[in-house]
Please model this.
Amino acid sequence: MTLPPAPATLPDASGAPPFGRHAGLAHAFDWARLAPPHARGALWRLFHHKRWHYVALATPELFCAVAIVDLGWTSTAFAYAFDRRKGKLVASFSRDGVPGLSARVAPHVAANSCSRFRFLSQTITIEAAPQHRYRLRLDSGHFGIDAEFGPTVSPILLAVGPVDGGGVHATQKSGGLPLWGTVRCGAIGYSLDDGVASFDYSNGLLARETEWRWASAHGLDLGFNLQAGYFGAHENALWLDGQLYPLARAHFDFNPDNPMAPWHVWTDDDLLDLHFKPEGARREERNLWLASSRYIQPIGTFSGWVRASAQAPKRIVAQLAGVTESHRSRW
Model:
């Protein structure tokens, strides 16, 4: 199945959101232009507009993730580096920002856009250059990243759909991107050369209570994104040999009381069946007056099979590095 090209702007000229899955990059997400029945007032949008920009960097030795999150009335950022051979986090960063000042999630991820987070001397930037190239820089003193990745070797997914509570959400997911650069964890340095990067840019009007399970892993020729929860099956996709294929509803079989036990993920269309073996995890639990978050992101490997159609031969997946996630937020 070939996905239609991504629209240049969301919503369209009539104010309608282009629900569905598309291939390519949008250049504007402007929810103030939504027409009924999806239109909402400015105050409602202020408290429901959520944006985040997440990047994963993977090599045989190291797995890193970096995220900038703008919730409108507050913001946060986090990053970590997980040494896969040692089986432990070797660096981490987490910081809440000053509302309206610390974080700026880019209005899109097309060329010349930039997401930033700054708190005192701690900074994160995620920049998009022409020809689908990107640069990530983090400086938090003891922990630093200087990475470049791209160009894309397969189409970028744009998924747009309704969510509970009357909102509308959109997300852009990349497949695997060629990666190079360095990571500094105290006195120890790591090379990212010949690794694989991927990104998740999400922008929408979400309910106050939001919950999901997520799985993502990428090589240059094979990768996938799965979600079950607030966004249904809208963003489920498989990247295979430079092509992008939509996937059906995803299932996550895991033990919420022991998320470091193996996971099993599969899709209803019989195009993906994978087992995930965690190697470590980043977790965070917050309970603030206005908001709360319970989050765990295990890091590990996926093994099993995928295929482009029910008639296609199965492609074996063996120890593909990636993450799963269980997340519940009141925001």
In short: The helical segments are 42-48.
